[in-house]
Amino acid sequence: MEQELLFEEEFVKEPKTKSELKMEKLTIKDLPGVGAATAEKLESAGFRDLMSVAVATLGEIVETTGVSESVARKMINAARDSMKMGFETGTEILRKRELVTKINTGSAAFNALMGGGFETGAITECFGEFGSGKTQMGHLLAVNTLASDPEATVVYIDTENTFRPERIKQFAVGADLDSDQTLARIMVAKAYNSDHQMLLAEKIDSLITEQGKKVKLIVVDSLTSHFRAEFIGRGTLAERQQKLNRHMHVLSRIASSHNICVYVTNQVMAKPDQFFGDPTTSIGGHIVAHASTFRIYLRKGKKGTRVAKLIDAPNLPDAEVCFEVTENGLRDVA
Ligand code: GTP
Ligand code: MG
């Protein structure tokens, strides 16, 4: 499938310059030194658009394609040149910010924590131990997104087989929506492994541009479980991180180019060398942490409550709220 370059597509359409129009049509096959065989090797290794080549290392390209270093360098440079990696004015950024909407959580305290709700145009990562409420949050955001916009569609990438239509129906009741119509507006895909998960994320562009779906929320639950299961041992860590990086990059591009809220869940693991404070840390390390605009740490509180701690946000203070998951939504707990 030919992947068109959609990097930094503007929310507000403006007449495009000739070079921009030319740039949009470029694919991996247009890079110098890339014939059909090399293109196939690149694509099967996960390099599906020019951006993925532009951010690749020399070693990655050489290893994947078997071309010489100088050819690989030319490919990377050409991919970089074709990218619109320029600067934007503060005014342009502000105009994009004005299009950002916030998805309601149903809890006043949680909304306040997030500056009004979960932002579109950004990735929000929720990490926490089993049963902390990450999947519940995904279901709830799906329903509340649909409640906020009658034209919206939700994409749900399920890697752990924990999407439950019954739960959607219960939250739909809480949001005063027709439960069958709500279910019909959620497009669920089960990801069987990390490659499949990455491919599904890349397909979202065509849902929007070819099928005309107004995708407003993408849930990836869980972001890291396949990666964690498939890459075991120290020797495979670098490869895992590279793939995860590429996946995060795709999600981040889709979030910003289509003004979509991307919600990803992540597990925690014990930090063996920590003796003070909370000894847990999230999977995926700095790659996931860095690519997420907002990061929430969820944990179980007293008497069945849940505590959400905002630990990373560009323009909000770190803070904590307590809430409860109920049959039909969230409830604030003092
Ligand atoms: P892992 O995926 O295992 O890492 O956990 P998670 O963080 O995704 O947990 P999940 O969101 O599945 O939370 C499960 C918890 O949500 C349960 O232990 C319940 O406390 C709560 N929960 C799930 N369904 C219901 C429900 O129908 N009613 C109520 N009141 N609570 C529910
Ligand atoms: Mg879960």
Report on this structure.
This protein has 334 residues and is α/β, with parallel strands linked by helices. The protein folds into two domains: 2-82, Orthogonal Bundle (DNA polymerase, domain 1); 95-332, 3-Layer(aba) Sandwich (Rossmann fold), CATH 3.40.50. 42% of the residues lie in helices and 20% in strands. It is built from 14 helices and 13 strands. The chain has helices at 18-25, 36-44, 50-54, 58-65, 69-82, 90-98, 108-113, 134-148, 165-174, 179-184, 194-209, 225-230, 237-258, 285-291, and strands at residues 102-103, 118-119, 122-128, 152-158, 186-190, 214-221, 261-266, 268-270, 280-282, 294-300, 306-312, 319-325, 330-332. Strands 5-4-6-7-3-10-11-12-13 form a nine-stranded mixed beta sheet, sandwiched between helices. A hairpin with a 6-residue loop joins strand 11 (306-312) and strand 12 (319-325). Helix 8 crosses helix 9. The longest helix has 22 residues, at 237-258. The chain is globular and about 60 Å long. The N and C termini lie far apart (52 Å). Residues 1-16 and 18-23 have low confidence and may be disordered. The structure holds guanosine-5'-triphosphate and magnesium ion (MG).
